[in-house]
Amino acid sequence: MGSLEELRKPVRYLKGIGEVRAALFNRLGIFTVEDAISYFPREYEDRSRLKKIFELRDGESCSFMGTVASEVSETTPRKGLKLYKAFVMDQTGVITATWFNQRYIKSVLRRGVSYVFYGRINRKYRIFEVLNPVFEKLDGSELKNTCRIVPVYPSTSNLTQNMIRNAISNALKLVEGKLEDALPQWVRNRYNLSEINYSIRNIHFPLSEEDFKNARYRLAFEELLLLQLGLLRIKSALEESKEGIVFGKVPEMEEFIKSLPFNLTDAQKKVFKEIEQDMESPRVMNRLVQGDVGSGKTVVAVLAMFKAVKCGYQAAIMAPTEILARQHYKTVSQLLSNYGVNCRLLVGGMTPKAKKEALEDIEKGKVDVVVGTHALIEENVRFENLGLVVTDEQHRFGVRQRAVLSQKGENVDMLVMTATPIPRTLALILYGDLDISIIDQLPPGRKPVKTYAVDESMRERINAFIRKKVREGRQVYIVCPLVEESESIEAVSVQELAERVARRDFRDLKVGLVHGKLKPKEKDKIMTEFAGGKIDILVSTTVIEVGVDVPNATVMVVENAERFGLAQLHQLRGRVGRGKEQSYCILYSSSDRQEVSERLKVMEKTNDGFEISEKDLELRGPGEFFGTRQHGIPDLKIANLYRDIEILKKAQEAAMEILERDALLAAEENLLLKKQLLKRFESRLKELSFN
Fold first, then answer.
1. What is the pTM of this model?
2. Do 232 and 271 fall into the same domain?
């Protein structure tokens, strides 16, 4: 938006805002004039059409003009409720304006003065009433809250919509016509993008729907263009700056693949081929392997680690939790032990002696593959010759953690795995610094999990079904969203649920409880007992969402399923159906909202994670679905990755052409764009590599 001095002015200097109110604006992330004008509305109310009183209809919200024809009366129909009423009239009729508990009305509304009112109309027989109307005096000044399309902003307590509108209106007056356009003229011409001053004014106070659409299109385009430029820059900087390790062919590879206790799916073979080509090329590998729960990503990672070790390098795999790290360690060491590959576990819960020993062996090169948690990125972890780094469940790790681990070797290859299925187009955008492989096939013999969305009336039948499954020797997960009871959210707490399950519903069965507030050792102990079959029913929060593999568990019950996104429900469901037995997922919901039942129906219909994530995006919007903050990717203020996919494609095309013409954005026409880019990608400045 250019380098205007006014943009940097603290918000407290705007008319009508002092120190106290400024603190409320700060809560919304508004500290400067620039923050204020780029604080975009959440929605709009069309108050532009002015009606006569006799045209008003019951139930509608609209604007009308009238003169106050009486003094404001005050009544107290019951304790704690005061009503303030006045008659308002025009040439066509009379209406009663009613406010609840708004004492100030008596001192501001004047008999005989004309105002524009906006509010919800109630009509009983021939009597009209408008409830809690917003009103503005007709004195020739600009109307901000009536007779126009009015913005509605995300707010905080003690900040009214009027206060926010006034602050933003005053901020706009300060910079009106002075904002510099960051987009080169040729980009604006080619993509029909409106000018920046017009766009900022009309995103807040549009004069018509057409003006709003033009403004939104322009601002969403700019936001997505900056996102693309940043990610493309990071990717090309990675490729330019580093000569990667060239791993050779491994003669035993074929024999190793044949020795696996199962056959690889075609999808696994295809993805491993892509990884192999990367590892054998002179550039550093940065590849994301995306695959549904149970599609066999870990095996593909094991093949890559086997290749690295047989070429004389060490490999490391980092998992987000100790449970998952131990599970990977078990899998990896079982598969590699016959081939003389030395694997070692490195997690926070080890004894100091075992940890010291492991660290010494890793540094001396006696360990080939290290499996661990965040413990791997601690300063005292040194490798003799690290060549490959694998991170599992990428969305749990930030960009920096990935970078720290890869810096423990020289230009190491990086493999990133995720079971959060992201529609391909969006994956390409979000992980612009990674190449993408998709494992879109499950191993043969896996039965789809049968899923049922139910309400409380089914509780007894479901409990009988759980008891039957436990008698058959199976195990059950019961998941709920909260650790403690909360007054603001009506959902069962995990402690309360565990007690109900253990003492009332299944007191004859062995019930375990695991949640995020337990110490890692306690959590691991319970999970180990569950995996070993010593616990029949595990009551848990979502800590079991990622990676826990208990093939004997065949029933997943989710309480308050309406409180989870579809992608998360799919992750939870993926904890069952891992053995040969038929598995079941029961989704309890007490909500009767249509969008909730629509979402849960998606779960009943399909087991395809990609389809589910598409639907999740459509129904919820991207929000924190991707945990974009984790990637060091700037938050999107106005663009919506799902709804604006067409704008996104155009922005990507423009970004590629801009960088083709001027890779360092050094040309005069790109300097403002570069400045905006550096501001947006603050946390990844080094990687943008403009120096």
1. 0.64
2. no
